[in-house]
Amino acid sequence: KDRLNPHLPAHQERFGEEFRPVKLEKHVHGFSSNSNDFAFDKLCDTKLPELIAKYSKKKPIMVFCCTRKSCVLTAKSLANLWTTKDSRDRHWPAPTQRLVIRDNELRNTITSGVAFHHAGLDGLDRHTVEKSFLEGQISVICCTSTLAVGVNLPCHLVIVKNTVTWQDNSWKEYADLEMMQMLGRAGRPQFDVSAIAVIMTRQEKVQKYERIMSGQELLESSLHLNLIDHLNAEIGLGTITDLRSAKKWLAGTFLYVRLKQNPDHYKLDGDTSSHNLE
Fold first, then answer.
1. What count of other Cβ atoms lies within 10 Å of the Cβ of residue 134?
2. CB contact set of 89 (below 8 Å; sequence gap of 6+)
């Protein structure tokens, strides 16, 4: 807000696709299945070659997988598919240089231009995969979502294979921000004028991910999940000294805004309706 005119609403800016240096083409593919998420992930593996053939244009590909094991199995599957095809029908080239790799399974897939990448992989092997992908020796990386953060590895085609991930011994949907980070890997300003991002999910979730891709999905706060920790931090900083200052601090949060507009989402005890939020 403008401090000189606090009665006026905050200025808003809208940043659309026109601000992207590389135009991003987005697709959501849904598949019908009544099976559990392990079986659904295997179903996605069978659909993957068709999507690569449709969208890759023989350019670098990044496939985000739900588990480390899925990364390895998907890489093996794509490498096997590559070896069975005639050179004219292959969707990516083989490496032109010999790559030194310690991991036996990775060494086998990398000869087909396919690699896997996850936190359990040897550090030197991870570095070799990243460097070789940037240099064009590797054309396909099957990886976990951690590769979307911190490592600059842009590609032409990103495929999110399944929209759940295995965390804390259970299946969980990717957070919206995590999903956008993965999709954001598509686009190489120095090489392309366009890029493609594809989400593979269950049929009943297609509309949700179409809204996320188009920026129409409403964001909700997660402050309430760790509210006590944040309150203690503000007390330690001296921002909060009593109940009145605590209310003032909370009234300036995104949680307060969303509680007024969508109280049912937060399932908090007591009356959280917009007219009685205090």
1. 15
2. none
Q: What is the pLDDT of residue 49?
A: 95
Residue holding tokens 């899925």? 70
Backbone φ and ψ of 115, nearest 5°: -135, 160
Q: Is the pLDDT of residue 263 over 90?
A: no
Q: Say what the pLDDT of residue 148 is.
A: 87
pLDDT tens-digit readout, 60-119: 999 999 999 999 999 999 999 999 999 889 999 999 999 999 999 999 999 999 999 999
Could you tell me the sign of the dihedral formed by the alpha carbons of 177, 41, 225, 263, in that order? Answer: positive
Mean pLDDT of the chain: 89
Contacts 24+ apart (CB under 8 A), 99-106: 99/128, 99/132, 99/137, 99/138, 100/128, 101/125, 101/128, 105/72, 105/76, 106/75
- Is the distance from CB of 97 to CB of 137 less than 8 angstroms? yes
Rg (CA), the chain: 23
Query: Beta strand pairing status for 164-167 and 157-161?
Result: unpaired
- Nearest CA-CA partner of 43 in 53, 24, 28, 29: 29
Say how far apart CA 163 and CA 78 lie, in whole Å.
20
Q: Could you give the CA distance from residue 276 to residue 16 in angstroms, rounded to a whole number? A: 36
User: Which residue type occupies 186?
Assistant: A
d(CA 191, CA 153): 13
Q: Would you state the structure tokens that stand for residue 25, as one six-digit string?
A: 């083409």
